Every structure is written in structure tokens, then in C-alpha cells.
Amino acid sequence: QVQLVESGGGSVRPGGSLRLSCAASGTISNITLMAWYRQAPGKQREWVATVTKGGSTIYADSVKGRFSISRDNAKNTVYLQMNSLKPEDTAVYYCKAQATWGQGTQVTVSS
Question: Which of 82, 78, 109 is nearest to 95 (CA)?
Fold first, then answer.
């Protein structure tokens, strides 16, 4: 079972961009679904986006058109490119592979 480590979080102004990375300790090439979730303060964790082994993607309505998920199987890494960030995108972002979660990375969007 792989371990996951997220990075790339930080503080940005509304309209800004961030790119999150999720590095796996082992191969992800055989993992069918890789996903990003987020949890805002006082709220339940919610699904953000999923990428399949074949590269197909699906997004939550709240991020569709602004976020882009991708995977690099050669680097055992999944990415989340976040553009046009809004204050409501503020949350801890988590990577998930099968039943394994990363530790999360904080994203804060504020003017």
C-alpha cells in the first residue's frame, strides 16, 4: 500500500493559482482511481476531482472549469492545478489512492 505526501499549498489572493502535488511512495500505474478531496474549517471533507488510470477526469461542479487534475505515472505523482481561486476554496486538500490518504496541504485564499 502506497503512502502519499501532498505539497504545494500556500496562501494566495483571489484569482490566483496554485499547483498541488501528491507524491506516492510506490507505483501508481496500477491504481485505477486517484483523487483529491478538501476539508474546509467546520465542514465535512468533500470530493474535488478524480483521474483514472487512463487519464480520464471528473470534477465537482464547484471547481469545474477552474481546476485540473492530472497524473504522471512515471513520477508516481498526481497534480491538481487550481486557477481562478476563490475564498471558498480555502481548505486542507488531501490526496487519496484506494483506501490511503495523505496528510493534507493547506490552501488559503484571501485578500
Answer: 78
3-state SS string for 20-48: EEEEECCCCCCCCEEEEEEECCCCCCEEE
Check if the beta carbon of residue 24 is closer than 8 Å to that of residue 67. Answer: no
Place of cell 478538501: 38
- Where do the H-state alpha helices sit in the chain? none
CA distances from 9 to 33, 59, 99, 106 (A): 22, 19, 23, 5
Q: Is the pLDDT of residue 51 over 90?
A: yes
User: Residue 88, SS3?
Assistant: helix
pLDDT given at position 23: 97
Q: Which three cell numbers stand for residue 19?
A: 499547483
Average pLDDT over residues 77-96: 98
Nearest C-alpha neighbor of 20 from the set 69, 61, 65 = 69
Q: Is 40 exposed, middle or buried (0-12, 13-18, 19+ CB in 10 A)?
A: middle
